[in-house]
Amino acid sequence: EPISNNPQQKHSVSAQEKGLGAGGSVSGNGRPNTAAGCGGGGGGLSGGLTQPAGWQSLLSFTILFLAWLAGFSSRLFAVIRFESIIHEFDPWFNYRSTHHLSTNGFYEFLNWFDERAWYPLGRIVGGTVYPGLMVTAGLIHYLLNLLNVTVHIRDVCVFLAPIFSGLTAISTFLLTRELWNQGAGLLAACFIAIVPGYISRSVAGSFDNEGIAIFALQFTYYLWVKSVKTGSVFWTIGCCLSYFYMVSAWGGYVFIINLIPLHVFVLLLMQRYSRRLYIAYSTFYIVGLVLSMQIPFVGFQPIRTSEHMAAAGVFALLQAYAFLQYLKDRLTKQEFQTLFFLGVSLAAGVVFLTVIYLTYTGETAATMATQHHSLAQHMPSLYFSPLPLINPIKPVILNLDTERLFDPVLSAFAVYFAGVMVRLMLTLTPVVCMLSAIAFSSVFEHYLGDDMKRENPPAEDSSDEDDKRNSGNLYDKAGKVRKHVSEQDRPEEGLGPNIKSIVTMLMLMLLMMFAVHCTWVTSNAYSSPSVVLASYNHDGSRNILDDFREAYYWLRQNTDEHARVMSWWDYGYQIAGMANRTTLVDNNTWNNSHIALVGKAMSSNESAAYEIMKSLDVDYVLIIFGGVIGYSGDDINKFLWMVRIAEGEHPKDIRESDYFTPQGEFRVDKAGSPTLLNCLMYKMSYYRFGEMQLDFRTPPGFDRTRNAEIGNKDIRLKHLEEAFTSEHWLVRIYRVKKQENRQALDHKLRNVAAKQKYTSKKTAKRKRGYVKNKLVLKKGKKLNKKSV
Amino acid sequence: MSSSVISVISRFLEEYNSSTSTKLKVVDAYLLYILLTGALQFLYCLLVGTFPFNSFLSGFISCVGSFILAVCLRIQINPQNKAEFLSTSPERAFADFLFAHTVLHLVAINFVG
């Protein structure tokens, strides 16, 4: 191909030539051709003349595509091992809502009042749910069906999270590229595609908000950094629209609306105010505010709750600051000071009044401790194993640019939140990925870049491509300069190549170990659908326990469509989703008194419970019992929580201490407390269990989960009858009997003294019978008619 | 103190009149108009009450939003700030302004109820 000798025409020489040149020199070094190395090497050479732009973008595209593929495939373990099914509990509600959306349309979904949940209260779904997830899945389903690709809505829901993980990788790439460079971006994309912290909430089948929310989060951050960099209103509006999507997707949007003001505030403190910052934040705040209030669930919270006040405060501060800057530019120092005093006193007065007003109408943060901590995911995190094995080096950045400051601020807050609540480990994950990518990128740049600089001139000399050497003066000049420099450097770095190669090898090994670790953790810890249980025998064959679905389908096919099922709130969503029956309480847990009623019914004896069940119109009761297979997540293990919640609302009727032995133990065998042995939950769990002998070593009625022989073996139920027990006794369903027509008396029958036998005193002469007090007719006298 | 404040303000107004171009003065007049509209809305809300709250918020935020967007436009077309906005020509700034206004008013119309 003709090479132009004109040094001014920078883009005339084909990129291919340069690519071959640089590629050739890279492989000539014997270094593995990592993306970071290539990017770093390309950046290391001055002027970017040998930067193979074509190769670089091809490489980036390939790497991102592979990252998407890796992220997608590594989330498919559960689908391959079991089937394409919605997992756990919350996703069932999301699935049911999406199904409602796809069958009935958008406005029906937005205004949906669900009377089959929280009977008899009902639930306003449209106003208590973040619609982003359902709308996304519904839209994809609609578009695919429009193109005549008939996918079932369940498959769209199952595979939505893996697809969005690829998009998350791309937006992380974009964000890290803005913050650092392309190499770090590619590394970050690869990390976040397979990191377990994110996978745990976005496996195929886990149809939950976090699956799309992390994508929206990263994308919003990318657009924010871009808009601060360029100061363009266009990018800021893009950021607002992405923020709107985030608000519709997840309650964690509060993280964004606090982090961005914090970033602005830190910049103001560090004297890095600029007009671009003003434009970016002011526009973002106002347009973002009005957009976020369009979601019914959010409503007026952005101007009422304390979580959003930081954003408003920073907005006001920024306006004041900008106005003062404007005045400062136009007035002399003296004049400015006069006005400044006036302004400050006014501002102080306003702030004082606002504080007084807010104290009067102030919010008390009332969290229900019992219910809050009963959720295991709300506990503080105890371990950090899902985090990547990285960060031996965190680059200490002394001169932080405006946008690079974003990273430390983000990471500080993310670490704090992750320490408080395990579930928020998810917000820490993207940050850690980005920081570690930056660390790795700098290390690679440092240790590979120097090699490139040094090795390049000799490689070029020894190359056979004469035209390359003659191509343009700049090329030769650069080569000459570099050789000169490298000759100077060489004596100083005698041990250089060995250390560099060792470090590079170590880093690569670390990365490979990380990939293996991630895949192992994903496969073992996060790929269980939890609706289907699997156990493995000694010979490795698999034993599937499908009791849950068996029971829910029994309910679906054998009960009346309007039957009401009472169970503990954990199973509400699954019952509504799979069995399609009305439930009393479910995972939404918005009404604690209602849950307490159910808890009271479960903890009281059968007659008291029957009264409650009658008042709530309950037809069926469903419990989970793990005693036969040793399943530890059953209702007896959760029983104390039921008692505690019931005690919170009905302290006079339920006392937790009644359910413990006098020594303070919770026992289900003969030594257990009589209240426990007579309560409804106990009876329902162990009904007919006393007849069952699991194997010849243990007595009949041996509970495998509690490792105890149960106390009450002959249980009789008066108001319930057993309707269904699943194959491994995991799910037990009882039917509530209607009241009998004749009520049994609650008192003993009256003892009536036996009448003495009447013996006739008639003699033989007067044996004719006579009626006592019979009217005697006296012959001859006519009865007076008037007296009759 | 008060006399000095008045003198400062009057001197500022003089300097403003002389040094700002007509284009910017037009934008400033528009800003003043938006400010007055917003103040009127707020006054109305104080007098009549906040029901329906979403309508009040929609109108008020629309005013504040228009104000902010006009300020951004003013910053971007001010020739004194050219160094900071090399890639943003005045035409581009105005186009962004229109785009932002479209989004803002679409949302405001949806919110007004």
From TrEMBL, chain A:
Sorted alphabetically, which keywords does the UniProt record give? Answer: Endoplasmic reticulum, Glycoprotein, Glycosyltransferase, Magnesium, Manganese, Membrane, Metal-binding, Transferase, Transmembrane, Transmembrane helix
UniProt-annotated location(s): Endoplasmic reticulum membrane
Positions of region (Disordered): 1-37, 454-474
The main place the protein resides is endoplasmic reticulum
Task: Give the EC number(s) under which this enzyme is classified.
Answer: 2.4.99.18
Cite the PANTHER family for this sequence: DOLICHYL-DIPHOSPHOOLIGOSACCHARIDE--PROTEIN GLYCOSYLTRANSFERASE SUBUNIT (PTHR13872), DOLICHYL-DIPHOSPHOOLIGOSACCHARIDE--PROTEIN GLYCOTRANSFERASE (PTHR13872:SF47)
Chain segments annotated as transmembrane: 58-80, 124-144, 156-176, 182-200, 250-270, 277-297, 309-327, 339-360, 413-444, 502-522
Q: How does it sit in the membrane?
A: Multi-pass membrane protein
DNA-binding as a keyword of this entry, yes or no, is no
Cite the annotated pathway: Protein modification; protein glycosylation
Tell me the protein's name: Dolichyl-diphosphooligosaccharide--protein glycosyltransferase subunit STT3B
- CC cofactor: Mn(2+); Mg(2+)
Residues of the Oligosaccharyl transferase STT3 N-terminal domain: 59-395
The entry lists its GO molecular-function terms as: dolichyl-diphosphooligosaccharide-protein glycotransferase activity; metal ion binding
Instruction: State where composition is biased (Polar residues).
Output: 1-15
Q: How does it assemble?
A: Component of the oligosaccharyltransferase (OST) complex. There are 2 OST complexes, OST-A and OST-B, which contain STT3A or STT3B as catalytic subunit, respectively. OST-A and OST-B contain common core subunits RPN1, RPN2, OST48, OST4, DAD1 and TMEM258, and OST-B contains either MAGT1 or TUSC3 as specific accessory subunit.
Q: Where is the STT3/PglB/AglB core domain?
A: 565-621
Q: Which family does it belong to?
A: Belongs to the STT3 family.
Q: Name one GO biological process term.
A: post-translational protein modification
User: Gene encoding this chain?
Assistant: STT3B
InterPro entries hit by this protein: Oligo_trans_STT3, STT3-PglB_core, STT3_N
From TrEMBL, chain B:
Subcellular location, record wording: Endoplasmic reticulum membrane
- Describe which pathway this protein belongs to, using the record's wording: Protein modification; protein glycosylation
**Primary localization:** endoplasmic reticulum
Q: Which UniProt keywords apply?
A: Endoplasmic reticulum, Membrane, Transmembrane, Transmembrane helix
Q: How does it sit in the membrane?
A: Multi-pass membrane protein
Name the GO terms of the biological process aspect.
protein N-linked glycosylation
**Record InterPro entries:** DAD/Ost2 (IPR003038)
Q: What are the GO cellular component annotations? A: oligosaccharyltransferase complex
TM stretches of this protein: 30-49, 55-73, 93-112
Q: Which family does it belong to?
A: Belongs to the DAD/OST2 family.
UniProt cross-references to PANTHER family, sorted A to Z: DOLICHYL-DIPHOSPHOOLIGOSACCHARIDE--PROTEIN GLYCOSYLTRANSFERASE SUBUNIT DAD1
Function as written in the Swiss-Prot or TrEMBL entry: Subunit of the oligosaccharyl transferase (OST) complex that catalyzes the initial transfer of a defined glycan (Glc(3)Man(9)GlcNAc(2) in eukaryotes) from the lipid carrier dolichol-pyrophosphate to an asparagine residue within an Asn-X-Ser/Thr consensus motif in nascent polypeptide chains, the first step in protein N-glycosylation. N-glycosylation occurs cotranslationally and the complex associates with the Sec61 complex at the channel-forming translocon complex that mediates protein translocation across the endoplasmic reticulum (ER). All subunits are required for a maximal enzyme activity.
- Assembly information from the UniProt record: Component of the oligosaccharyltransferase (OST) complex.
* Designated name of the protein: Dolichyl-diphosphooligosaccharide--protein glycosyltransferase subunit DAD1
Q: Which organism is it from?
A: Pygocentrus nattereri (Red-bellied piranha)
| Record lineage | Eukaryota, Metazoa, Chordata, Craniata, Vertebrata
User: Gene name, please?
Assistant: DAD1
